[in-house]
Amino acid sequence: MTYLECTTCHTVLHVFLKVATFMVTSWMFMWFGNEYLADYLDHKIEWTKKPLQRFAVGILVMVVYTLIAIVLLTKFFELVFSMRFSSLEQTGYTTIAITFVITLFMTSRSFLFNWRDMAIESEKFKKESSIAKYESLKNQVNPHFLFNSFNALTNLVYDDQDKAVKFIKQLSEVYRYVLDTRDKEVVNLADERKFLDAYLFLQQIRFGEKLKMDVRLADVESMVAPLVLQMLVENAIKHNVISEDNPLTIRLFAEGGFIVVENNLQKKSVTLEESSGLGLENIVKRYEFLSDKAVEVVQNEKFTVKLPILPA
């Protein structure tokens, strides 16, 4: 091999290495850069809530990033490796074409992953919702609830027949609502309040002045997970002492974007009615699916649960 041939081979090899380095560097910037942008956009714009906006913004951001990255990398290689743009032009076009394919792949992958996660979350929510409704229905037909309701009804039949008729009607409303909402993810707060009023009527016939209710939700427009307010009130009644000397006060009101259920804390030393422990945990998990805000639970001298207000 002549000296000229060796020089030519060395030059070709040198140019090839430069071009290969440029292409590998470009692809790495495109791949990891677009992957980071896809993850960032997933947190800012959720596929499940704004799919068209997420798709359009994703394509636009990745295309702009790709063009800027190619221009900057080209300038960098021109300065550092003394490569003229003309020698990189064809390579740059190839890299851009490949990068567009990567962009579409990243966007499609992001959509599919989010769709899969949404499907999993949807199944989890259905399971949690079913458990909650089963727990509520079970609590309404357990021997303690029925015994207490029928015992109160027996006394009413002798003392106040009109109130006894209303008691039976409200008891039927409680069961009807539980059955009517068994397939619903959310219900209007106004409907939930009617159900809660029926339930509270039954409980206040039983406890009288020993149970004090302060409900201030008349002007609040919101959706709620079915049976949640009743479950929280029921837990307060179940786990706290209720007597003439120690009346239980339960307050329901709206504050700072939350529906607040609050009661004074006077725990029973022994709870006759068994608790599955799923009630509050289930409510927290259901609202993880329904709202970006988390359910807040605070326990000090009072027990407070804050449910995020859901747009009506």
TrEMBL record:
Pfam families: His_kinase. The chain crosses the membrane at residues 12-34, 55-73, 93-112. The keyword Nuclease does not apply. InterPro entries: Bact_2-comp_sensor_kinase, HATPase_C_sf, Sig_transdc_His_kin_internal. GO terms for molecular function: kinase activity. The keyword Ion transport does not apply. Signal peptide: none annotated. It comes from the Bacteria. Keywords: Kinase, Membrane, Transferase, Transmembrane, Transmembrane helix. Residues 132-211 form the Signal transduction histidine kinase internal region domain. This is Histidine kinase. It comes from Chryseolinea lacunae. The lineage of its organism: Bacteria, Pseudomonadati, Bacteroidota, Cytophagia, Cytophagales.
